[in-house]
User: Fold Molybdopterin molybdenumtransferase from Oceanobacillus caeni.
Amino acid sequence: MVERRKPIKVNEAISRVMNFATSGKVEYVPIEDSYGRFLGEDLIADHHVPPFDRSPYDGFAIRSIDTIAASSANPIELEVVGEIGAGSVFEDTVTEGQVVRIMTGAQIPDGCDAVVMFEVVKEFENDNKSFIQLKRNVKSGDNISFTGEDTKKGTSLVRKGTFINPGIVALLATFGYKKVPVSKKPKIGIIATGSELLGVDEPLQPGKIRNSNAFMVQSQIIRAGGEPIYFGQFSDEFETCFNQVANALSQVDILITTGGVSVGDYDYLPEIYNKLHANVLFNKIGMRPGSVTTVAEIEGKLLYGLSGNPSACYVGFELYTRPIIRTFLHHTNAFLKKEVAILGSDFPKPNPFDRFVRGHLTYESGRLVATPVGLDKSNVVSSLAEANILIVLPGGTRGYEAGMEVSVILLEDQEGTTIEKFTTMDVNTRRSQRKYD
Amino acid sequence: MVERRKPIKVNEAISRVMNFATSGKVEYVPIEDSYGRFLGEDLIADHHVPPFDRSPYDGFAIRSIDTIAASSANPIELEVVGEIGAGSVFEDTVTEGQVVRIMTGAQIPDGCDAVVMFEVVKEFENDNKSFIQLKRNVKSGDNISFTGEDTKKGTSLVRKGTFINPGIVALLATFGYKKVPVSKKPKIGIIATGSELLGVDEPLQPGKIRNSNAFMVQSQIIRAGGEPIYFGQFSDEFETCFNQVANALSQVDILITTGGVSVGDYDYLPEIYNKLHANVLFNKIGMRPGSVTTVAEIEGKLLYGLSGNPSACYVGFELYTRPIIRTFLHHTNAFLKKEVAILGSDFPKPNPFDRFVRGHLTYESGRLVATPVGLDKSNVVSSLAEANILIVLPGGTRGYEAGMEVSVILLEDQEGTTIEKFTTMDVNTRRSQRKYD
Assistant:
């Protein structure tokens, strides 16, 4: 007899999964390996920036008081008493009528309170001494980058959990993080199921297809920030299957299986959950694709039963697994960014279920435009390649027209958003007041 | 005497650099390592998708002709003569009055031309035989995914040079790419210059700062798709410097130095270019930050003299080095995406030079909004952390107001754009007709 399952809403499914979200540990990596990881602690300034008053240009450090009378009609002459390369320090105090040649980044010498650039002075020699001629007066503080003007010592500059981009790497170096505290990656196991699956290097056989989900999910795990561990394909035999799952579970933080979760006669997963005494959080969601997405929990560890259908598998991962990975990484905005866009083409076929349609986001004159890609049959693999968004189309009795506002989920986004914003953001389906042209 | 340099326009600098763009070789990596690389050849379908007519659901494969008379008033009964799991093939031909139980993804048996889902039939047993009762008629082709309906064999599905995302990994697996042809990464050397630079693990000293550019550029190279090789910090002594550059050059495809390119007395790079008989493409650009960005060429190999100033270094890399890296990777859209956004806050200070202001892009009601981050002094490191765009502000005598349209360059984008679009796109500075609210 076929099992009857009761579908729950997407937001309810998210909420049930997130009850089991945990944060992982912190480890240290060399700064060279920190790009693309997530900060394990707040990034703190260990000194003022700049650490001293310094010159932002090549020029001459001067005393502004000496220049009060200077003008085109009355050029003044000042003696160059030394020079400071970046990284050097001028040991004396500069006194009346003196200037010091100074390089970009060098510390302003004692006595000086401004810098004039090379271009505004005339240099000359006289009696074996160097001088500059200046035809304008200078205000105290001109062309000086002051101590702490950018950042005060002790400031928390970047929050724990932030994705480390090149700018953050620069900050880490500036503040002496030779070793960087980063969030440990969750280990995520993958098991592919399905007796129809061939290995990627096997020739095609009647009735069979190559296993693509395992490799796709592996890439999604990497993109989300996790560490994938592929356990291979399931055996067809129940006891062996069961042992494979139990064994894999013991080695990972999260386990993903693909396929085997529908109500077909060959789908072992429900039975395996039973035998493991797993707490099944849900096994049916009112969404397309991915309605059979199943999540179970054993002693706080999550088991994802993603669909064997590539698109359903993809969507199930991004909606329910990614936020768990990002939370493990201490990322505050664990959910993919959700924004409003204009639908770029008609999508006439109505569907009673909420749909997550693969789409491509473009910008047109500063507006977001979302265009569905491919046929959007749930077994169409190729449209996944082009997709950089999922277009959220709430279920109903009518289709959608170009020009309507829709919600879109940004797949390549690193910033993310909170669960509150992700689950409560209006999915506008009203016709845009100003039709897009 | 100070050298006088003649600044050129940004687009002219890009065009001079791109004259020396070359494409790299192709190598093969296991599919597991292909995510995030760039396709070295077009991805070709090695078979139809689906490879055979198959069932998209669990259900019963039937002959539609048998159901013509079926209705609620006149339910028909059909005998279940076998079952097909996904991956199996039904060996016989189905004849009148017969159906076959079929699992999702399995091949439609000979004789059948439609599938009915479990939910619409009633199953029963009689005389040790299995039957279904059906109360509606079915059209030929119902619930069948037809051979090649998604993709025809031989189709080029993804173009050479495309960034490999998880969807493309799924395609690679589907079409048997156990080893994936990917573009070889260009080896990019980095040398940091500046006697003011401390190592990241050294304590601060008067007048000195820690070297952050080398690590930042290293991350930018990785993000762009290259392979960074860090050669360390320059010596202060000219001959040693020269030998370090010459030695590094021989080991890389592209060499980047940071610092040492202004007209200061301690800036050795110009002299090194001379001694190497390098062809200096330009050493001054009418832009801020990054005006001293220098690019030279020796026997087709590019030497980048990026500014020692972190922001200038960052911008110089993204504008002039990244497209060279992406071209090496066979990426057609080698330039960062440039789009129109609404300026999110005033930027009142005018500047005669074209500026590339670090900013943060957000979406508000489906529109792109660009907000400058930090003080935007060119030495402000911290604003780089938050930046996900560069706001392009053409030079002029007036500042910019919130609500104006501006061009923005998307730093985290993987899709990119062509040189034509990047360099000819209008940088609108007119006030937006509809002020943003």
